[in-house]
């Protein structure tokens, strides 16, 4: 057996030089002395072979020749060319390599068998090598000293073949190798090790002469298929003995040099070799690789495809079956100790997948792997991606899915992508199948070079040529570039599908993105405690590493202070890559493993019809309150992250590109924008550059923010401490805003009280309030209460610009009670703080800049009212101001100025109305009517004609003014006096006087701004100036007003003690009056005391009498 093992070693080494023999084997060389040494005498009848003749100078014509034997003479003359008849090896090769349809006689078969057997067993075999390779042996020290007669010499020569320059020596070894591999029985030990397995698998006969001797390659092919079936655990497979398995793999390894040595493959692919690889020289596995590259060509024969697949599957089980790969990567395997793991079974260590993972790990660590080895690895990684059947784990675990969903898609990686699509779209793969796919993606590592994935390469070729042509071919950035152009005009549908299918698996292991791994491997090891590229940990699985990285990339300021920056912060390069991956994941929820896993049920329940890009995440956000807790948590975290960096929403950023370029480019350039970009987009939502997609996206994000105050990053950071202190247990943003706003208002009204809400929170709170006023949907309570009214009265009104709110205000009398109350409350807040009136601020934006730039925000409407009739006032703004004035007249609470001025009188006269009114019910002018009730009885008697007039031109008020002296009701007198005071302050409030003097105002007072009685003073000066001639009607009305004002100076007596006390306390001479009253009281006290003493003394004198 020792000698047999040495022969096996010899054969292992002999295969290396087979390529030279293939190049010259069919051309007999007249000067080749090996042929003379191959001569031997053989009796065809008894089958006994004689020894080889060792003489080296015998002429061809004088020795024994196969062509002259009676058993083979006819076959040789019929099949082999005449010039080869004198060369026994040429005749042997001719008869062995004949076409399948060509038959030879059985006696000739038997003669050839014995001749080949004698060649491999003759004791003079080594002496032939000594003579043929004499010069080479003397030049090689390693071979010159080996023991002779044991077969070591030839083994040594083959090991040092690269140093052999003698052509005849190489030819001799090559020819002997081809002879041995023509029949499995000529391989030492093979027959003994595999005899039982051959019979069990019915792979052929082991008895000489019972089967065509040239079909014996089929026996090895049959065993190889049995070995592959066992690895794939196919139904009914037979378990081959371990010794036979080793022998089968040994034969495959020995035949890896020259495809002629794999007799089954040679005959199956002979014509295909001529078709596809005619110019490819034999040797070093080149023909194998050429045929592998053309395996999926339509013209490739099925027999050849099957034979090639079997050999590829053997390579997958043992990389040494590939001559070129084993040779190219041998130094690197030794350098990085890829075959030195003593704890690993030898069978696993030899697998192609283990070799790829080990060397890929070295590459990812930045270590050097030879270019030749990397080239071979690239070829075999592509091979594994093209044909799923080369991965036994996928064949075993995904058999059902392939039959159900992917039948007939075997070519060019289509079946693998089909399985990826099933896993991505439907999520119905078994755990083992998904794991097998994930393992294959890691082995092939297509993220490092997109060309490994042939299906992706072919689908995306046009996109790469247009959108990514600036990137070097094969660069890992190609995939990132394709993701950046996903859902753009440059992307084609087939590429989009293939890309998302691959990214689905790459996203589940951070190591499969080579750029991310390169930039973040040190951070991951330091912060997330990860291991090497090809190592895994149950404590930190691959999918959890990226979550760890992005949590540290988007640490808030408070988190940053709690953690040490030296140990917890990511490097700048790693942060950039984490942000890039987040941008990619935002394109499709399936690219976020945690999100898809936790939200699978909710996606099916709420979002089954949302199939467009980005719609699924929006759908989950819309149904946030309905999601299961685990899904709600991950969607909430992602939304919170988007609020900090809205650029993660790649689709939204693309849609908003025009607005960003025009108004927000400065904040967009920040690496992490901390909410500034979204705030800028909201502020410019109504610019002309804003398109519909961008506006819808921005509004949707605003709506999502209302669900939780944490979704507004700047608001959260500014008010987090205030919310915890003042508004605990409140989650919804709108409720938090109301809570904080109420606190601010109460603190402001209570003079001298310190503000409990911090300054930075108050500033951001103001921003949030202004943003919420733009769209009724941002006021969830109002929107919900008025939902039915909106459908009924404002169905065709577009959301945004507060248009729906304005519509509800105009239809206020027709609204349901619930909606009416909410609208009134909104109007009350807007009147108190006009900045919250979005329509007013939008329509009057320019007028505010012109007239009210220095006015306080709370007095904005008052300022606009004062400048309402200016010639420079915009008509649209003037109309809006009029609407607001009409609104104020409906309820005193909508007029803050009136409410403040009459806060004492309203409870005095109208307490009954206030007692019956609710806070959120509109009084519909009842209080104002109550105030007018004091002089209502006088109106019919004195001004009946004017009351009957339909148009409110101020005639009623004018009648009251004229009859002021006749009014007996003091309350009515007081109201008329107030009207007179108002008209004195602003002529526009006195419609009769304004109409009468309009022409004079234009001529005499055009340069005088209205308000504060300025124009009225101008007219009175003109009246007193004898040089100025006023219109008669104006002159008459002015004179009447002067008389009325002189009477109005006399204040009517108070109606009661409370009224009197009110007048005293509101008087500017309050202190004087009170001091005089105090003096009177003291004086009365002294007088009483004095009078009492006198009275008492008189009484005493009377008693004395």
Automatic annotation (TrEMBL):
Residues 29-41 have a biased composition (Basic and acidic residues). It holds the Pfam family Cys_rich_FGFR. GO terms for cellular component: Golgi membrane. It is found in: Golgi outpost; Membrane. Its main location: Golgi. GO terms for molecular function: fibroblast growth factor binding. This is Golgi apparatus protein 1. It comes from Cyprinus carpio carpio.
């Amino acid at each position: 057996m020792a000698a047999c093992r040495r022969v096996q070693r010899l054969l292992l080494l002999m295969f290396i030089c087979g390529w030279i023999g293939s190049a010259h084997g069919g051309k007999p060389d007249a000067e080749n002395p090996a042929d003379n040494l191959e001569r031997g005498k053989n009796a065809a009848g008894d089958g006994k072979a004689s020894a080889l003749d060792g003489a080296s100078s015998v002429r061809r014509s004088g020795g024994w020749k196969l062509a002259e034997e009676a058993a083979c003479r006819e076959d040789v003359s019929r099949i082999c060319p005449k010039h080869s008849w004198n060369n026994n090896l040429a005749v042997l090769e001719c008869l062995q390599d004949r076409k399948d349809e060509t038959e030879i006689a059985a006696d000739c078969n038997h003669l050839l068998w014995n001749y080949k057997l004698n060649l491999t067993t003759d004791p003079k075999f080594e002496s032939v090598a000594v003579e043929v390779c004499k010069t080479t042996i003397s030049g090689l020290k390693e071979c010159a000293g080996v023991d002779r007669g044991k077969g070591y010499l030839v083994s040594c020569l083959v090991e040092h073949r690269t140093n052999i320059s003698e052509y005849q020596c190489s030819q001799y070894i090559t020819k002997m190798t081809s002879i041995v591999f023509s029949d499995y029985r000529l391989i030492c030990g093979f027959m003994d090790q595999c005899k039982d397995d051959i019979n069990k698998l019915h792979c052929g006969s082991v008895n000489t002469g019972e089967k065509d001797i040239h079909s014996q390659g089929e026996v090895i092919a049959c065993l190889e298929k049995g070995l592959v079936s066992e690895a794939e655990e196919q139904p009914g497979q037979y378990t081959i003995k371990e010794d036979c398995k080793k022998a089968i793999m040994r034969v495959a390894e020995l035949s890896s040099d020259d495809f002629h040595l794999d007799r089954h493959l040679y005959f199956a692919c002979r014509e295909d070799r001529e078709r596809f690889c005619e110019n490819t020289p034999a040797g070093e596995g080149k023909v194998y690789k050429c045929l592998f590259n053309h395996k999926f060509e339509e013209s490739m024969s099925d027999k050849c495809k099957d034979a090639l697949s079997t050999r590829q599957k053997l390579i997958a089980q043992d990389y040494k079956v590939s001559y070129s790969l084993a040779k190219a990567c041998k130094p690197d395997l030794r350098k990085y100790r890829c075959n030195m793991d003593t704890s690993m079974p030898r069978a696993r260590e030899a697998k192609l997948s283990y070799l790829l993972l080990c060397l890929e790990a070295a590459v990812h660590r930045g270590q050097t792997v030879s270019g030749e080895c990397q080239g071979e690895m690239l070829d075999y990684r592509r091979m594994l991606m093209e044909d799923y059947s080369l991965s036994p784990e996928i064949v075993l675990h995904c058999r059902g899915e392939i039959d159900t969903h992917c039948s007939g898609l075997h070519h060019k990686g289509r079946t693998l992508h089909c399985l990826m699509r099933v896993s991505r779209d439907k999520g119905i793969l078994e755990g083992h199948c998904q794991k097998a796919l994930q393992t294959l993606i890691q082995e092939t590592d297509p993220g490092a070079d997109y060309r490994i994935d042939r299906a992706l390469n072919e689908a995306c070729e046009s996109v790469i040529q247009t959108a990514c042509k600036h990137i070097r071919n094969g660069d890992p950035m190609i995939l990132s570039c394709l993701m950046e152009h996903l859902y753009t005009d440059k992307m084609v549908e087939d590429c989009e599908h293939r890309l998302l299918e691959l990214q689905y698996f790459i996203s589940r292991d951070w190591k499969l993105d080579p750029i991310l791994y390169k930039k973040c491997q040190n951070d991951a090891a330091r912060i997330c405690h990860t291991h090497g590229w090809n190592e895994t940990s149950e404590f930190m699985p691959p999918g959890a590493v990226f979550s760890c990285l992005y949590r540290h990339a988007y640490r808030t300021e408070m988190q940053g202070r709690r953690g040490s920056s030296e140990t917890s912060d990511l490097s700048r390069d790693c942060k950039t890559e984490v942000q890039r991956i987040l941008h990619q994941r935002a394109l499709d929820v399936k690219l976020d493993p945690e999100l898809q896993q936790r939200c699978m049920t909710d996606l099916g329940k709420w979002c089954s019809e949302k199939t467009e890009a980005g719609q699924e995440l929006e759908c989950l956000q819309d149904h946030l309150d309905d999601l299961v807790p685990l899904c709600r948590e991950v969607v909430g975290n992602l939304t919170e992250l988007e609020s900090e960096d809205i650029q993660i929403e790649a689709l939204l950023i693309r849609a908003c590109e025009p607005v960003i370029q025009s108004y927000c480019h400065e904040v967009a350039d920040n690496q992490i924008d901390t909410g500034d970009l979204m705030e800028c987009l909201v502020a410019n939502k109504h610019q002309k550059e804003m398109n519909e997609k961008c506006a819808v996206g921005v509004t949707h994000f605003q709506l999502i923010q209302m669900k939780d105050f944490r979704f507004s990053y700047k608001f959260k950071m500014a008010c987090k401490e205030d919310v915890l202190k003042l508004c605990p247990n409140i989650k919804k943003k709108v409720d938090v805003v109301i809570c904080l706003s109420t606190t601010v208002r109460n603190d402001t009204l209570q003079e001298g009280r310190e503000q409990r809400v911090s300054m930075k929170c108050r500033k951001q709170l103001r921003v949030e309030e202004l943003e919420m006023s733009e769209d009724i949907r941002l006021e969830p309570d109002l929107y919900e209460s008025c939902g039915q009214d909106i459908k009924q009265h404002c169905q065709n009104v577009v959301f945004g610009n507060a248009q729906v709110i304005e519509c509800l205000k105009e239809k206020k009398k027709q609204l349901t009670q619930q909606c009416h109350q909410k609208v009134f409350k909104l109007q009350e807040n807007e009147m108190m703080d006009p900045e919250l009136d979005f329509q007013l601020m939008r329509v009057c934006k320019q007028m505010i800049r012109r007239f009210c730039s220095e006015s306080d925000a709370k007095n904005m409407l008052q300022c606009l009212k004062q400048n309402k009739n200016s010639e420079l006032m915009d008509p649209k703004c003037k109309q809006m101001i009029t609407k607001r004035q009409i609104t104020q007249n409906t309820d005193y609470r909508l007029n803050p100025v009136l409410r403040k001025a009459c806060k004492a009188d309203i409870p005095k006269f109208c307490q009954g109305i206030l007692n019956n009114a609710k806070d959120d019910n509109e009084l519909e002018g009842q209080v104002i009517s109550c105030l007018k009730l004091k002089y209502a009885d006088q109106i019919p008697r004195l001004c009946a004609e004017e009351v009957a007039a339909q148009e409110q031109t101020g005639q009623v008020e004018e009648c009251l003014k004229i009859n002021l002296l006749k009014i007996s009701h003091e309350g009515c007198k007081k109201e008329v006096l107030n009207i007179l005071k108002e008209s004195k302050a602003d002529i526009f409030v006195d419609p009769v006087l304004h109409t009468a003097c309009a022409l004079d105002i234009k001529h005499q007072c055009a340069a005088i701004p209205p308000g504060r009685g300025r124009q009225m003073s101008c007219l009175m000066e003109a009246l007193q100036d004898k040089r100025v001639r006023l219109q008669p009607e104006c002159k008459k009305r002015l004179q009447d007003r002067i008389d009325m004002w002189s009477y109005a100076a006399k204040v009517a007596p108070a109606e009661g003690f409370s009224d009197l006390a009110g007048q005293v306390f509101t008087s500017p001479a309050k202190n004087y009056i009170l001091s005089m009253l105090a003096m009177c009281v003291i004086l009365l006290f002294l007088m009483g005391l004095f009078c009492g003493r006198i009275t008492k003394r008189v009484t005493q004198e009377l008693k004395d009498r």
